[in-house]
Amino acid sequence: MSTFHLRISTPDGLAFEGEVERLRARMIDGDVSLLAHHTDYVSAVGAGEAAVVLPDGQTRYAACIGGMLAMIQNEANLIATTFEWADEIDLDRAKRAKEKAEARIAAAKNDDRELMLAKAKLQRALIRIGVKH
Amino acid sequence: MAGASMKDIKLRIKSVESTMQITKAMELVASSKLRKAKERQERSRPYFIGLKETLVDIESSTKDFSSPYQKQRDIKKRCLIMIAGDRGLAGGYNSNIIKAVIEKMQGDIPTCILPIGKRAVDFCNRKGIEIVTSEFIEAGSISIPDCFAISNLVTQGYLSGQFDEVSIIYTQFVSMLTQTPRAESLLPLKAESNSERKESHSLVLYEPSPEEVYDAIVPGYIAGMIYGAMCESVASEQGARRTAMDAASKNAAEMIEDLSLRYNRARQGAITQEITEIVAGAEH
To answer: In this structure, which topology does domain A4-87 adopt according to CATH?
Structure first.
């Protein structure tokens, strides 16, 4: 199968660069899967799991939250706010974050801003836990 | 008399020596922190540039483009993000940034400040300026998620009409010896026409729509701007501290030299006096 060049950059630096067969990620309007020679495409990344299929058929999973994805002239550029490969995720930390966020949601009944922040934290923790499993 | 002053001088030398040790250590720490801040900024650059290019592309390739982030409104209230240091002993770093903020605040428009760094919080409290949040007190420990939190705070405040203009005041790291305070406007975003690239990107498929993509990535872009300014400021603070500590170490070395000379003179004086006394005693 033909491949395309993918570059994943985050504020922490380059997370991945190389040829891939397929990239699947969650955009703000749902999952998309890109194959080589996709039409020029730009969208904003939502929050969810990303999967990268390497030329040797191996699939790597990652938690991918926020940012944007651009495919211009068969060059894909994933600019993610958070991008963590499954093997880099600290499960214990994610679980702790989940418990903490749940406690915060329970405590912040009337505070809309606090509730929103806590919900976002919970979502991030859940995505990390989901990717790890 | 000579003996007492010899002892005094010796004590002074010792105390200056230990001061010099501290300033030298601080200089080394500042150098390494500075390098780290620069590296962090370097790493985040591709992320930030990528977002910026996309924003410019969307603006220039979409007809009748409009975004709430771009609309010019009457400025009823301003928000300043002020980045200062956590500690002193950094030359003019903190006072320069405070001067820049005071200058920016001139005029009748009410202003609120989002301070980052202990010195910035102190400044706002002292002057009685409205503070948006004092969650981000320690400038040295601001991480990328913190920058996203700040960005969400200001973009939401901007969209809800809490303030109509957002600027950031930080210190630009020009070189090891020069750091200049700078004010940059964040919101509303300025329309940047980039007609050269218009052609090649006009057929890009934006999903769900150019406007939605644009609005979704603006907070990330603002966070990138804040993070970049943050790293510049931290680098500047450490640079200023390094220079200040370098000067202090040099002064200490000079003082030690001066004191050693005085000590030797006092010692010589004491010996001469003793010999004179012995000789005077022997003659009789």
So the answer is: ATP Synthase; domain 1 (2.60.15)
CB nearest to A81's CB, from B148, B206, B213: B148
Q: Which two tokens stand for residue A66?
A: 């926020």
User: Does B216 contact A79 at a Cβ distance shorter than 8 Å?
Assistant: no
Judge: A68–B51 Cβ closer than 8 Å, yes or no.
yes
Residue B108: name the closest of B131, B72, B76, B132 by CA: B76
CA distance B90 to B34: 13
**pLDDT value for B192:** 64
Which positions in chain A touch B58 (Cβ < 8 Å)? 42
Domains A4-87 and A90-132 share a fold: no
Between CA B220 and CA B130 the distance in angstroms is 26
Percent pLDDT > 90 in chain B is: 21
Tell me how close the Cα of B220 comes to any Cα of chain A, in angstroms.
6
Cα separation of B130 and B259, whole Å?
51
Contact between chains at B206 and A66 (C-beta distance less than 8 A): no
Q: Does B224 touch chain A (CB under 8 A)?
A: yes
Number of compact structural domains in chain B: 1
R_g over Cα of chain B: 28
Q: What is the CATH number of the domain that holds B161?
A: 3.40.1380.10
* Assigned domain for B14 exists: no
**Position B1 pLDDT exceeds 50:** no
* Nearest chain A Cα distance for residue B61, angstroms: 12
Instruction: Please give the CATH architecture assigned to the domain spanning A90-132.
Output: Up-down Bundle (1.20)
> Where along chain A do its domains lie?
4-87, 90-132
Closest partner residue to B205 (CB to CB) among A13, A41, A44 is A41
Question: What confidence score (pLDDT) does residue B265 get?
Answer: 92
A63-90 pLDDT, tens digit each: 998 889 999 888 999 999 889 998 888 8
**Is there a contact between A43 and B213 if contact means CB atoms under 8 Å apart?**
yes
The whole domain housing B211 covers 46-238
Which one is predicted more confidently, B31 or B62?
B31
Confidence tier at A51 by pLDDT (50, 70, 90): very high
Q: Residues with Cβ < 8 Å from B198, sequence gap 6 or more?
A: B60, B61
Whether B68 is covered by a domain: the verdict is: yes
